[in-house]
Write a structure and sequence with these properties.
Blueprint: H1 6-23, H2 48-81, H3 97-126, E1 133-140, E2 143-148, E3 156-160, E4 182-185, E5 190-196, E6 201-205, E7 210-214, E8 220-224, E9 230-236, E10 248-254, H4 256-269, H5 271-274
Parallel strand pairs: 1-5, 4-10
Antiparallel strand pairs: 1-2, 2-3, 5-8, 6-7, 6-9, 9-10
Length: 285
């Protein structure tokens, strides 16, 4: 269930445009799938979960803005009405029952207004629906590995390293493009099992509203259902070492026909990585 209405999102967009105009920024709207220069908001979302995260963020921004304006108004009233010039004889009032009840109840109501949509969103994130596809993502120092299970037409795994600048394709952004992207079909529930082989990493896709820790010895899970075909980029969001900024995530969302064709190609391409390498023993000299 979405927290914000389309009307409120329109007002938010107008507010962002006004801020951009004041700051002299020609384009302040965030892009979809990858960061854009001078963006001032979250990336465009292509999943229902991500849209709900974005809506909740907008809801909190407006709530915090309203609280700040209210407190500012109270401060101005106090400064104007209760300054030394207008009150040469200070009031000796020490208690006001109405005020004490109000400043206790109002924060409680604010917390309730935050908690209800927050719990609803957490439930949507943590209760994973039946998956159409399962992909295991393993964080290494410093790259990602993906494994597609055999019972879902896969049976292979591969490494995904950041593409060097000379190897970037025309549609790949610098420091975000990879040599082997994770590929999923559009409109399908994808369960991502996340772990790490060495240190703690974090699997994060801004346009999917997804971020989960990859911890050695532990299997965490997240999910998404991309509603739009395209290429979406993320990064490890954990300070995992000196190679931290060089382990991007690239997910290509394609049609079911393209996905089936990619599966067939990937089986041939990554067949040698699906089985363990033979063990070799050193011979005595």
């Amino acid at each position: 269930m979405r927290i914000e209405t389309s009307g409120l999102r329109s007002v938010t967009a107008l507010f962002g445009a006004a801020v951009a105009l004041v700051l002299g920024i020609s384009e302040a709207v965030a892009g979809t799938g990858a960061p854009t220069p001078w963006e001032t908001g979250m990336q465009g979302m292509v999943t229902e979960l991500g849209q709900n995260v974005s809506d909740f963020h907008t809801y909190l921004v407006w709530l915090i803005t309203a609280i700040c304006l209210f407190v500012l108004a109270l401060i101005v009233i106090i400064v104007v009405r209760f300054n030394e010039n207008r009150n040469t004889v200070p009031s000796r009032t020490t208690h006001n029952t109405l005020l004490e009840v109000a400043w206790t109840i109002v924060p409680v109501l604010i917390l309730v207004a935050i908690a209800i949509p927050s719990f609803r969103l957490l439930r949507q994130q943590l209760i994973i629906p039946p998956a159409d596809i399962v992909v295991k993502a393993t964080g290494y120092s410093w790259y990602w590995g993906y494994e597609y299970p055999e019972d879902q037409g896969g049976g292979f795994k591969f490494d995904s390293n950041m593409a060097e600048e000379k190897d970037l394709k025309p549609d790949q952004p610098r420091l975000l493009g990879v040599d082997n992207a994770m590929v999923v079909p559009v409109g399908k529930n994808v369960r991502v099992q996340v772990t790490a082989a060495d240190v703690i990493h974090a699997f994060a896709l801004p346009s999917f509203g997804v971020k989960v820790d990859a911890i050695p010895g532990r299997l965490n899970e997240t999910w998404f259902r991309a509603e739009k075909e395209g290429v979406y980029y993320g990064q490890c969001s954990e300070l995992c070492g000196n190679g931290h900024p060089y382990m991007p995530i690239e997910i290509r969302v394609v049609s079911e026909q393209q996905y089936a064709a990619w599966l067939a190609e990937a089986k041939q391409k990554f067949a040698s990585t699906g089985a363990p390498a033979p063990v070799k023993f050193a011979t005595a000299q």
